[in-house]
Amino acid sequence: MNNRLVPMLIGLMAILYIFIVPSEPLTIKVTFKLIPMVLIILYALQRLPARPAPALRLVVIGLFFCMLGDGFIAVSFVSGLGAFLVGHLFYLTGFLKMSQMTKFRLAAIIPMGLYSLIIGSQLIASLSEAENDALVIPVIAYMLVISVMALSAILTGNKRAIAGSILFVISDSILSWNMFVSDIVYSDVFIMATYYSAQFLIAKSLASIGELAEDTAAIPEPIAKKTF
């Protein structure tokens, strides 16, 4: 499959899952949910250079664990959360290996921190009110990791990676708010549309961000981290 066909298939299958596939039976629903992610991983592999840097491989592994999370979360929220958590750890490790820190990019920690604090405090309050204290620690850990993941993407300076990571944060925020705080109209559409877009953009970033990975790997660490 060529580079144009795969994105078209991703979009088609995403639309099919979001708007057409019924909720039951669960097996069919989960199968169609995973198809766009399988295609996104295939697309990511197509975007890799002939000899991909380790950082790029980490991002692809992150995509794989997120796909596992898609399946697990249908039967167990905690298992799905754990798989996504591992996926984000791979993402942030890969992005950090390709980061080029500047004061402007580091300043993103302020809005990211404020956003996480506002959303997180409301989620924790809602979980406590519902006497669902067992989820408080997992939710806090997940929010911390996904926030750092988004910051690590910002530090790469790659627009697609940044947009993808931010959309991922938005998608998970809608999901968690809808589950634990209050219902959001058309939440399923918003969650999956932003989620698939996020994963596609992260996959698409691998071609351009791969140049940074190669440059970073080719020079000594002190120089690689220097701000230009």
Task: Provide structural commentary.
This protein is mainly alpha-helical. The chain has one domain (5-224). It has helices spanning 5-20, 26-47, 54-72, 77-97, 103-106, 109-129, 136-156, 159-180, 187-218, 221-224. The protein is globular and about 50 Å long. Residues 221-228 have low confidence and may be disordered.
In short:
This protein has one domain.
Based on the model shown, name its key terms:
228 residues; mainly alpha; 10 helices; globular; disordered C terminus
Compute the average pLDDT. Answer: 89
- Amino-to-carboxy terminus distance: 39 Å
In terms of DSSP E residues, the strand content is under 5%
Task: Please estimate the helix content.
Answer: over 70%
The class by helix and strand makeup works out as: mainly alpha
Low-confidence stretches: 221-228
Helix-strand topology string: HHHHHHHHHH
Shape: globular
**Radius of gyration based on Cα positions:** 18 Å
The strand count comes to: 0
Q: Can you tell me the number of structural domains?
A: 1
Described by strand count, sense and barrel closure, the largest sheet is: none
Total of DSSP H or I helical runs spanning 4+ residues: 10
Helix and strand topology:
Elements (H helix, E strand, L loop, with lengths): L4 H16 L5 H22 L6 H19 L4 H21 L5 H4 L2 H21 L6 H21 L2 H22 L6 H32 L2 H4 L4
Helix pairs in contact: 1-2, 1-9, 2-3, 2-9, 3-4, 3-9, 4-7, 6-7, 6-8, 7-8, 8-9
